[in-house]
Amino acid sequence: MNIKNLTPPEFQVKKIIVDKIAVGRRQLIQAVDLFFKNGDEISIHTLASAALEVLDSVMHHWGRMPFTDNILDLYIKPEGKKLWIQKENEAKNFFKHADRDPDKQYEFDPRQTAWVIISAIDSLRRLTGEEHDQTHAFEWWFMSRNLTLLKSDAENKDEITKLATKYGDKQRLDFYRDFLQARALFKAKL
User: What pLDDT, in 10s, does the model give residues 70-98?
Assistant: First the structure.
């Protein structure tokens, strides 16, 4: 008896063939979309961390330096790297594993997810050169929330500064919708 014949067509699923970069890309774009739609913070962080881990592993395999490694080499003392990496992986490991500490609690700061997402976006871009509307929106949002990090001559700084005043922290979804709509109009004119 063939089980597929017993399964209604709407429940039959076709297999998907993906490579590691496609996995990381899909996880990242979904994390960004959930971020802007105020999805569950733990799920967003878990997806973003998984995307970063996959994309950075590919970068290491190809002999390229991921964003985080570059930052560590440029700015952090050698003795501070271990602490940085521990802190970077703390939430991801807590969310992913329960074999050693099933009763432990963790105080999670959802703001750290933005740094994971921006690192994953950098890794995807450096691996593929791809630009996605969702990741582009996140970069602009991230910069508008972190204006003090921008160089004085940063490209589009005036527009990013305007976004910071137009959209407050609680208006992520409004920003996202407006940004994606503007990108669609821009592409339609090309």
Answer: 666 655 677 777 776 776 777 777 777 76
